[in-house]
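User: Can you recover a sequence for this backbone? Please restate the input before giving your answer.

Assistant: Of course. Working from this structure:
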């Protein structure tokens, strides 16, 4: 049976990008929606991997749109982008806290750029502190569904893949983890995730491990 639970962030504990946030980004960019979102997602991987910072990412988006953003607009886009991804699911936060209180070892794996990662560290430290391992793609240089992202977490946890339960809302990420031998649960809601963790019968971690990174906020 698993010895740890590895959670996805967005679509599981945190909510997906809000429609209001998307509208705000489109308004600031002054770009047609379809063209903006094509460039936004197509150019996102290097940003999520920490290969470029937010300002360079938005300059690349502007170039793909056939325009340019000045520094003020870039700053506004970075702030609006962060805000659009900042909401969390209170039921899932409660589940994380209950699971941690039961002594279960927790880890987090998220495809996330540096500016957004820093925002979560600053504003969501109350529940992030329950994760003994936090693997942000921008800092580990690996992103789901690449095998390296899961294997990096397993190595850092000191566990073989078959000792880890992975929870994610995207089927391609779940299938990639399954191919490596991780136990998996395709997230559909807090109640089902709670049942999956309970059914896994994970042994409490008595090692006294603490979070591996400093939390502010």
């Amino acid at each position: 049976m698993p010895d740890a639970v590895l959670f996805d962030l967005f679509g599981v504990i945190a909510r997906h990008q809000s429609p209001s946030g998307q509208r705000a980004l489109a308004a600031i960019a002054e770009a047609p929606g379809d063209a903006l979102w094509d460039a936004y997602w197509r150019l996102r991987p290097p940003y999520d991997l920490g290969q470029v910072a937010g300002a360079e990412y938005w300059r690349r988006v502007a170039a793909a749109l056939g325009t340019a953003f000045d520094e003020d607009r870039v700053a506004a886009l970075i702030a609006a982008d962060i805000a659009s991804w900042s909401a969390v699911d209170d039921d899932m936060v409660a589940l994380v806290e209950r699971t941690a209180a039961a002594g279960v070892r927790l880890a987090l794996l998220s495809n996330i750029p540096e500016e957004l990662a820093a925002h979560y560290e600053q504003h969501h430290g109350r529940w992030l502190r329950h994760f003994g391992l936090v693997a942000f793609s921008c800092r580990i240089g690996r992103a789901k569904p690449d095998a390296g992202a899961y294997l990096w977490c397993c190595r850092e946890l000191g566990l073989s893949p078959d000792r880890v339960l992975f929870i994610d809302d995207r089927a391609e990420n779940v299938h990639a983890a399954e191919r490596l031998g991780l136990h998996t649960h395709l997230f559909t809601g807090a109640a089902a995730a709670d049942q999956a963790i309970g059914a896994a019968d994970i042994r409490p971690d008595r090692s006294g491990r603490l979070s591996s990174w400093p939390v502010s906020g």
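That completes the design. DSSP finds twelve helices and five strands in the chain.
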